[in-house]
Amino acid sequence: MSMLYLKYIDSGLPVLIHAILCILAYLVWSVAALLIGPVICLFRTFKFFETSLIKYKRFGTIFSTYDVPFLHETENNRNYIVGLIRVQGEPNITELRKWVLYRLFESKSELDETYKRLSQRIRRRYLSYVWEDEDCFNIKQHMKMFKGATPRTEAEEQKIFENLATEDISRNISPWLFKIIPTANKKSYLIFVKFHHTIGDGFAMVGLLSRLVDKRPEFLNFSKSTRKTNFMANPIKRAITGIITGPLAMLVLVFSFRIKNPFRAKTPPVKKIVSWTPPISLDLVRRIKTKTESTVNDVMMSCLAGAIRRYLSEVRQKKPQDFPIAMTFNARSSSAKLADTIPLGNKSGGLFLSLPVSVENPIERLDITRARLNKLKTLSHPHLFSFLYFSVIGGLPELIGRISTYSINRHASMIVSNVPGPTEPIFILGSPIESIVFTPPLHGDVGMAASVFSYNKKIRVTLMSDKTIVRDLPRLTNFFTQEVQRLEEIILLND
C-alpha cells in the first residue's frame, strides 16, 4: 500500500480539517470531471453502438466489466489461477472426463448461465472482448494425462506444478485445463487445475469445486450462521461514508508515491516458482486466536509478516520495513454464497494492508496486524476502490485500463487470496481428496502472490513468484511454518 494512503487512514485528523480536505477533494474531482467527462461520454456512446452491433451480429457474450481487468496481461505473465489436488487411489481419465462432462456441461438445469464460458473461447470484436463458442468442444482438449516422468517426492511435484503453471493454453479453446498426474507410489494421484481469472475468481472456483465433488460441502465462513457484525456490513452506511470520504481517499491514492518493493520484477517474467507449507492445524490457529482475541486471518497475516521479516533479514541481509499487500475479499451477498450453484465470474474486492514486517516481537506484531485489519473493517474505501476498478475502469478504453492494472505494483508488493474451503473431507467418484493447494496469478506484474486455503480442518499457505525475483521460495514457506510454531510456544505452551 502507498505510504501516503497509510498515513491518511491512520492520521486521525480533526473533524473540521478532515471535512475541509473532503470538500477540496470534491473540487479537484469536479474539475477533472469537467475536463475528461465529455471524452468519457463520447466513448460510452461509441460502446453503446458497438455493443448493439455485437449483439446484432451474434458474435458472442460481451465481457462483464468485472472480468475485463484480468485480460490486462502479457504473453509471459497471463492471469491464471493454478492449483493442485491430491486424490486417493489411481486415476481413470475416462471416468473423470465423463464425470466432469456430466457435472459441468450436461446438468444444464442445475447450472448458472455463466457456466457456458467453460466451452467458450475469448475473442476480440472491435474494441470489446466476447465469449465465443468453441468450434467443436472436446473435453479431451481440457482434460489430459501428464506425459512426463512420474513424481516420487513432493519436491518433484512442485517442479511439475511450476512447469505446468508457466505453460500457456491454446487461444482456440476456453482457457481452462485439468492435467491428471499419476504418482510413483500409486496410492494417490494429482489433478493440476488451471483456470484463467476471466472464468472466475477464487470464490467462484470454490463453487466450481463443489460441483465436481460427490456431495456439496460446507465451507468455512459460508455457513448460514455466519453474520457480518462490523459497521461497514451495512450497505447504506457504507455508501454514505463512501460518498463523503471516498473522493479524498481516491485523491490520496492517485498521488501516492511508489513503494519500496523488495520483490519488484526488474525483468520480464521467465518461469513461475511455487512453494507451499505443510498442513497447519486449523484447531491450533483457532486456539491462538482465542487466546489473543483475534481472528484466524489476523494470525495468518501476522505469521506472513514474520516470515517475510526473517527472509529479508536472514536471507537477503536487509533491514525489514513494513510490507504493503493487496488482499482480496468476497463481495458476494450472503445469499449468493449459500446458493447451490455459485455463478462463475469475478465478484471480489481488494483492500490494502501494511504488514508490520518491521516489528520483531511476534505478539506485538499480531496486535498491530489485528489493529490494522480492524481499522480497515471500519472503512468504505476498499468497497469504493473495488467498484471503481472493476465497474468503471473495466468499461474505459483498454489503454487506461492497463495503466490502472499495472499501477497495482506501485501500491502492493504481494497479492494475498484468503479463500474458505470445505470443512470436512470431500470425495470425487468415491475417492477422498487428501489435499488442495492453489495460488492466484501475479496480476499487474506484482512480484509475489499468496493464498491461504483451509480444507478439512487444515490450512495451507501457497506462494508463487518468478525465478527472476525469488529463487529460494521454500525458505519463505519454512519461515511461515516456524512463525506459527513460535506463536504456539509463546501463547499456548508457555501459558
TrEMBL record:
InterPro entries noted in UniProt: O-acyltransferase_WSD1-like, O-acyltransferase_WSD1_C, O-acyltransferase_WSD1_N
Pathways involved: Lipid metabolism; Glycerolipid metabolism; triacylglycerol biosynthesis
Domain O-acyltransferase WSD1-like N-terminal, residue spans: 64-227
Domain O-acyltransferase WSD1 C-terminal: 345-487
Keyword Iron found: no
Transmembrane is among the record's keywords: yes
Catalytic activity: a long chain fatty alcohol + a fatty acyl-CoA = a long-chain alcohol wax ester + CoA; an acyl-CoA + a 1,2-diacyl-sn-glycerol = a triacyl-sn-glycerol + CoA
One Pfam family, short name: WS_DGAT_C
GO BP annotation list: triglyceride biosynthetic process
GO molecular function annotation: diacylglycerol O-acyltransferase activity; long-chain-alcohol O-fatty-acyltransferase activity
Keywords: Acyltransferase, Membrane, Transferase, Transmembrane, Transmembrane helix
Any one Gene Ontology cellular component term annotated for this protein: plasma membrane
Membrane-crossing segments per the record: 15-43, 239-259
Entry's family note: In the N-terminal section; belongs to the long-chain O-acyltransferase family.
Protein name listed in UniProt: Diacylglycerol O-acyltransferase
